[in-house]
Task: structure prediction
Amino acid sequence: MLLDVRMPGMSGLQLQQEMCRRGSHLPLIFVSAHGDIPMAVETLKKGAADFVEKPFGGQTLLDKVHEALRQDELRFRRQTQMEEIQSRLALLTPKEKDVLQYLMEGKRSKQIALALGLSRKTVDWHLSVMREKMGADSTGDLILLLHKAGCLGVDGSPHLAASFA
Result:
């Protein structure tokens, strides 16, 4: 959506704020002959895809729109993938979640078994069931899925509890 900073009735900034309040993820590109750096920074911090000063060429605007749409498609794909992973996590039993928490902390089957008072074979069975539920071919794939879902920090630190809320 193209917004001018100065529009009759409601400014582009006010419309952006209202759209954010309503949970809209529509990509916004601000255009203005009256913009300044602080205003551009404010719109971008609040989620605008871009800020273009008038006058601008048609190709410039077209390129900005294409880039905003490309970024929005990537955002949508990531969100959809994350929602799918979260829905799969919801299928896990409490015991599977316990095993998974230890797995995310880097524990091996033997260590998980000891911590939970289970046999290693039982832990391996839980891991097998979890991989199937999550659509992962291996334990490494399972950990990668959890990372994509935001259950692992960039540094690999686990924060699974928030994923089950």
Observations:
- The CA atoms of residues 128 and 141 lie 12 Å apart.
- The two ends are 34 Å apart (CA to CA).
- The chain has two domains: 2-78, 90-164.
- The longest helix spans residues 58-89.
